[in-house]
């Protein structure tokens, strides 16, 4: 994610009172997902994912997010082919 974009949205995030729920990480996303997967407690613990970048690697995001998300919930992406 781009920090400038995050900061642009930050006033709205604060207004909504959800800033404490956001852990902003500025990093290539695949390596972050791999780090999350190293802790088994993270598996099946996420309710929602939205992917909107790095489109050539969407299959890799799908493989990792499938393990991190709670069963039967959706991975949303900006392309239809990886919606479940
Ligand atoms: C299409 S924009 C996403 C916009 C975002 N969905 C929003 O509504 O603000 C793509 C963003 O993903 C970031 N990005 C591109 N490749 C990335 C990657 N491999 N890992 C993490 N972020 C990446 C870019 O820096 C850019 O900020």
Automatic annotation (TrEMBL):
Pathway linked to the protein: Aromatic compound metabolism; phenylpropanoid biosynthesis
EC number: 2.1.1.104
Keyword vocabulary terms for this entry: Lignin biosynthesis, Methyltransferase, S-adenosyl-L-methionine, Transferase
Pfam families reported for this sequence: Methyltransf_3
Single annotated GO MF: caffeoyl-CoA O-methyltransferase activity
Keyword flag Glycoprotein: no
GO biological process terms on file: lignin biosynthetic process; methylation
Source superkingdom: Eukaryota
Family statement: Belongs to the class I-like SAM-binding methyltransferase superfamily. Cation-dependent O-methyltransferase family.
Protein's recorded name: caffeoyl-CoA O-methyltransferase
């Amino acid at each position: 994610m781009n920090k400038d974009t995050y900061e642009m949205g930050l006033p709205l995030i604060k207004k909504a009172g959800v800033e404490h729920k956001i852990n902003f990480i500025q990093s290539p996303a695949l390596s972050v997902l791999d780090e999350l997967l190293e802790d088994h407690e993270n598996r099946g613990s996420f309710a929602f994912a939205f992917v909107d970048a790095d489109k050539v690697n969407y299959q890799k995001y799908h493989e990792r997010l499938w393990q991190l998300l709670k069963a039967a919930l959706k991975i949303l992406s900006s392309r239809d082919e990886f919606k479940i």
